[in-house]
Write a structure and sequence with these properties.
The chain has three helices and seven strands; from the N terminus they run βαβββααβββ. The protein is α+β, with helices and mostly antiparallel strands and about 80 residues long. The model has no long low-confidence stretch (mean pLDDT about 95). It has a four-stranded antiparallel sheet, with helices on one face. The protein has a three-stranded antiparallel sheet with strand order 4-7-6. β6 and β7 form a beta hairpin.
C-alpha cells in the first residue's frame, strides 16, 4: 500500500477528485490531510485536474510507503516503495 498526503484545502479538491476517478485510489482522512491510498502506482494527470502550476507543485504534503517518480507539468506518478 502506498499513499500521497494532500492538504485538505479547496485548491486541492481537483487533484483528489482526479485521483479517485482513476478507479484504483481510495481516500482516508489523516489529521488535516487527505491520504490518496492505493495498492498500485498512483498516476494523476495535471491537465485533467485543471490546476495551475502553483497549485500543482504544492499539492503534495508527504508520502507513505511510496516514492514519487514523476512530478512535472504533465503528471504526478507515485510508485509503491
Amino acid at each position: 500500500m502506498s499513499a500521497l498526503l494532500i492538504l485538505d484545502v479547496p485548491e486541492n479538491v481537483a487533484v483528489v477528485e482526479t485521483a479517485i476517478a482513476s478507479g484504483n485510489v481510495r481516500t482516508e482522512r489523516i489529521g488535516p490531510y487527505i491520504a490518496l491510498i492505493s495498492d498500485r502506482d498512483i498516476t494523476i494527470d495535471r491537465r485533467t485536474t485543471g490546476c495551475r502550476h502553483a497549485v500543482w507543485y504544492s499539492c503534495i504534503a508527504g508520502t507513505l510507503h511510496s516514492r514519487i517518480t514523476q512530478w512535472d507539468s504533465n503528471a504526478l506518478v507515485a510508485v509503491v516503495r
